[in-house]
Design brief:
This protein has 228 residues and is α/β, with parallel strands linked by helices. It is built from eleven helices and seven strands. A hairpin with a 5-residue loop joins strand 2 (65-66) and strand 3 (72-75). The radius of gyration is 17 Å and the shape is globular. Its cofactor is [4Fe-4S] cluster.
């Protein structure tokens, strides 16, 4: 669907406006920060903790990297497939960041959470009132809409107990039939809004190959303006 690409480009646009941003990657793939850092994948808190012995042996500068437009980046990471609980990484990471003052002097914190949430650990930013607004990146494909609907169910569960709300849907175009109409219809059914329809453009792939956001790679392009 392109959630990490969409979020990194949108956050780059926010940072251009002078906002101080922290990205917390909550996906075991650890690809939430690579376009900002121009890197393959950032070392995750879990892997660094394993090397150091425990999370207590880490310093904030070990896990936090600063990238494009001074955006601060952290990846929580996850265990190797088939071993352990991936959601624990998110819980461990957020606790570590709070204890070490990572949230000081920040305007926006973005938790990049994987869409097929099946495990309570991934829902921690929602459950524990860490996040205030949730934006679901989806496309007009059936399974993407199904996932968006499922995530909304999860948000509903926690909305009453905490202060978290669904901010809206962001449709990342896949050029399927009637995509805009379907996205708008889903938003209406969910009682939310379609925040933006991001058109498909090959410049996104060109920028990704160079591990850059579109805003850095082609700042004058139409696509960069869409993210702004």
């Amino acid at each position: 669907i392109g959630k990490s690409t969409t979020s990194q480009n949108t956050l780059a646009a926010l940072a251009e406006m002078g906002q101080k941003i922290l990205i917390v990657g909550c996906d075991p793939k650890a690809d939430s920060t690579r376009l900002i850092l121009h890197a393959k994948a950032q070392d995750t808190i879990l892997s660094l903790a394993a090397s150091a012995g425990s999370v207590e042996d880490l310093e904030l500068e070990d896990v936090m990297k600063v990238g494009y437009q001074d955006i601060r980046c952290v990846e929580s990471g996850g265990p190797e497939p088939g071993v352990g609980c991936a959601g624990r990484g998110v819980i461990t990471s957020i606790n570590f960041l709070e204890e070490n003052g990572a949230y000081e002097n920040i305007d926006y914190v973005s938790y990049d959470v994987l869409g097929d949430v099946v495990c309570g650990g991934f829902a921690m930013p929602i459950r524990e009132n860490k996040a205030q607004e949730i934006y679901i990146v989806m496309s007009g494909e059936m399974m993407a809409m199904y996932a968006a609907n499922n995530i909304s169910k999860g948000i509903l569960k926690y909305a009453n107990s905490g202060g978290v709300r669904l901010g809206g849907l962001i449709c990342n175009e896949r050029q399927t039939d009637k995509e805009l109409e379907l996205a708008e219809a889903l938003a209406k059914k969910l009682g939310t809004q379609l925040i933006y329809f991001v058109p498909r453009d090959n410049v996104v792939q060109h920028a990704e190959l160079r591990r850059m956001t579109v805003l850095e790679y082609a700042p004058d392009s139409k696509q960069a303006d869409h993210y702004r």
